[in-house]
Design a protein that fits this description.
alpha/beta; 8-stranded parallel β-barrel; 14 helices; globular
Length: about 280
């Protein structure tokens, strides 16, 4: 089954909320864990136990595992395997983007059936040119996986690139259009999603992009809830006709409920209720 169809089934079952697994130093400390590989492993195991089989999709942030080197990557492999065993979709936040054979290498690392780091979907940056993503697009289609392309992110410095005009149109508009072409045969969720910050509602309206987002049939990962200031109401208003495609994402706020598994599960359930 394609990624988009699997995602739709899971969202219908659990709701669209996407908790993150972001084991940064401050959270490890808040959970009473050491900022080392053993602390990382305990943190990760608690998150997999709490979220696995309880939500539609979970977003591990690769950087917080990579900072521990090969031992951290081994923990990330276990996280991805644990989510697979629980039947929960993994959306690995790696934001890779390169050209040619290098992009092909990234695709093999995260989207190949043979890779121990394989995820159900990954985030990618199109800002070396949308065509540079083709190796990942092709392999994801071959293996039934998804990709989420950065479109309009909430960090202030992104505007200089994403909202710049080329041939009279915002660069982000071209990204949205290209994703829409890839999803043209989809019924609900296409296999190619986008990352659109939860705080970008005003920019979406000012740039006239809300209808294009809805037409692209892309699942829309919307990070920025809670700690970054966005609310579910901001998403509903700001995304307009595309709101039904949004996967509201939160990491720091939901993880602040830990380290007790039951408390994390309750926070995730609350997120899904608010998202609905």
């Amino acid at each position: 089954m394609s990624f988009g169809k699997r995602l739709a089934e899971q969202v219908d079952r659990f709701g669209p909320f996407c908790p993150g697994i972001d084991p940064h130093a401050a959270l490890l400390k808040a959970w009473g864990l050491a900022d080392d590989v053993e602390g990382l492993r305990v943190f990760a195991e608690i998150c997999v136990e709490a979220f696995g089989g309880q939500v539609a999709v979970v977003k591990p942030q690769s950087a917080f595992f990579e900072r521990f080197g090969s031992a951290g990557i081994a923990v990330l492999e276990d996280v991805l395997a644990g989510l697979r065993e629980a039947g929960t979709l993994s959306l690995l936040d790696v934001k890779r983007g390169d050209i040619g054979s290098t992009m092909g290498g990234y695709a093999d690392a995260y989207l190949s059936e043979a890779s121990p780091l394989r995820a159900d979907a990954i985030t990618l940056s199109p800002y070396l040119g949308f065509g540079s993503l083709q190796p990942a697009i092709d392999l994801a289609a071959e293996t039934g996986r998804g990709i989420f392309v950065l479109a309009l992110t909430s960090n202030p410095e992104a505007a200089h690139v994403q909202q710049a005009t080329y041939a009279g149109r915002p660069v982000a508009a071209e990204v949205i259009d290209r994703v829409g072409r890839l999803n043209c045969a989809a019924d609900r969720f296409g296999d190619v999603g986008m990352v659109v910050g939860a705080t970008t509602g005003k920019q979406l309206a000012d740039l006239g992009l809300t209808d294009a987002l809805a037409d692209a049939k892309a699942p829309l990962l919307a990070p920025g809830l809670g700690a970054q200031g966005a609310t579910f109401e901001d998403v509903r208003r700001g995304f307009g006709p595309a709101a039904s495609l949004v996967l509201p994402a939160s990491s720091r706020e939901v993880l602040a409920a830990g380290p007790v598994v039951a408390d994390l599960r309750e926070a995730a359930r609350d997120g899904n209720e608010a998202a609905r």
